[in-house]
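Kindly inspect this today.
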Amino acid sequence: MKRFPITKRGAEELEKELYRLKYVERPSVILALQEARAHGDLSENAEYEAAKERQGFVEGRIQEIMLKLSMAEVIDPSAIKCEECVFGSTVTLLDLDTEEKVQYQIVGEDEADLKNGKISINSPLARALIGKHVGSTAEVEAPAGIRSYDILAIEYI
């Protein structure tokens, strides 16, 4: 079975979502189905169809999260002790084209959120950063051409 990395925070977020789906959403959907059944003829009952569709989504997402958590290798970035860029590290970069400083944390696919500074381990930028040290330059092939970044700092938070 293939395991995939996820940060401790990412696993906690998945567990929160799983709890909400199981103990808030699922009972709500069951109640909606019961109410829709009480209205009579199910063949022309839009409320019933909507509730069944919602039930399918909730149950599917529950199964998906349970599978992801069972296959996850949870990594606590604060426990990492090394000097190179690895999964979970937070990297401060200087874009050599724009002279702009940016900061990203390298996370698992499900956790990636560019607006919040989290990039997927499988992204071209993360792949270019892995194994590099402070002071190194990472080159990334982007649609607009090759972009270069100087690594200013690496943290494990």
Q: What stands out?
A: The longest helix spans residues 8-38. The mean pLDDT is 93.
